[in-house]
Design brief:
Elements lengths: L1 H18 L6 E2 L2 E2 L9 E5 L7 E3 L3 E10 L11 E5 L6 E2 L6 E2 L14 E11 L6 E3 L2 E19 L18 E2 L7 E11 L2 E10 L4 E3 L3 H6 L13 E9 L2 E2 L11 E3 L6 E9 L6 E19 L2 E3 L5
Length: 311
């Protein structure tokens, strides 16, 4: 009897191990839904580097950790981290032009966690005259990023035709979830009429930082030693809009040199695109919206410099 009980326990363990399967959302080792979250690159100071206090006889070292938790690769030319906020006569040797962001792979089917790396700043601390000198540190992250939003929409080529028709779907508003990016497509209003279907596409800044024009000169002016212009901040480029694989980007409006302006208070913006239709039968079709933009985020660290030679 005891042997039978032991045998049954062993069998149940083996069946449990074999039937455990893969984690939810994973099939064949591939993460099916990796576009989750509302961030691109996270940034934070490595704890203790620097400490909260340094003597004026010590070297200055700061480590900034970067974690790409979005679904687009980063670390291209022009992507940089800058360190500012301190008196350059007290902390010397820090490059005003920042340091490049190392290549950071975004999340994908085979890497659902993204990647991380660090950048370092090394300098010297000059002799100070006061006993204690506060030196705030501001790290500014400037990089280009992309959003890809995909969902299905109902197309009705002849919504007001008389007679009774069997429809597979009804055109209406479509809400979208996370897209693993700091700018998201939040809602699509489908506006059908005969021969054309309109899409009112709403987007929003959800990442906690500030988007700016997808432009190399704007990316350079993201440096805190310079300043982004008024007509560069809160702009997102509409790279493409496809319905059923057909681009309707040329119909999208209103755009400012291909960009949508976001309201600086709400962080929201919208644009309108049209898709030409034929026939009369309704159908469900995929719509894909690609957005490209620069993005800036900041973090701070409080540092105090202490004089070593007390008079």
């Amino acid at each position: 009897m005891k042997k039978a009980i032991v045998l049954l326990l062993c069998l149940s363990v083996l069946i449990g191990c074999a039937g455990g399967g893969e984690p939810q959302g994973v099939r064949g080792g591939v993460q099916e839904n990796f576009r989750v979250g509302s961030e691109g690159i996270r940034m934070f100071f490595t704890p203790g580097v620097p400490t909260d206090r340094l003597f004026d006889t010590e070297e200055f070292n700061a480590l900034v950790e970067l974690e790409n938790v979005g679904a687009h690769d980063a670390g291209a030319a022009g992507d940089r981290v800058y360190l500012s906020g301190f008196d350059s006569r007290v902390i010397t040797g820090i490059p005003s032009g920042g340091v490049p962001i190392p290549p950071l792979e975004g999340k994908n089917q085979f890497n659902p966690r993204g990647s991380r790396d660090t950048v370092s700043f090394k300098g010297q601390i000059a002799k100070i005259t006061g006993d204690v000198v506060p030196q705030p540190l501001l790290a500014t992250l400037c990089y280009r990023y992309k959003t890809e939003a995909t969902t299905n929409v109902c197309i009705d080529p002849d919504p007001f035709s008389p007679g009774i028709r069997t429809k597979v779907c009804e055109p209406g508003p479509v809400g979208l979830g996370d897209q693993a990016a700091p700018v998201a497509v939040t809602n699509i209003e489908v506006e059908p009429r005969r021969g054309k279907t309109g899409f009112r596409i709403r987007i929003r800044n959800v990442g906690g930082g500030a988007p700016f024009r997808n432009d190399a000169s704007a990316l350079g002016r993201c440096n805190p030693q310079e300043r982004l212009k008024f007509n560069e901040v809160d702009f997102v480029e509409v790279t493409d809009v496809k319905v059923g694989g057909i681009s309707v980007r040329s119909s999208c409006r209103p755009l400012d040199r291909g960009h949508v302006r976001l309201d600086p208070t709400s962080g929201q913006g919208e644009f309108y695109c049209e898709f030409t239709t034929t026939g009369s039968a309704t159908f469900l079709s995929p719509i894909t919206i690609d957005l490209t933009y620069g993005y800036r985020s900041t973090i701070q660290h409080s540092l105090v410099i202490i004089k070593t030679d007390i008079d």
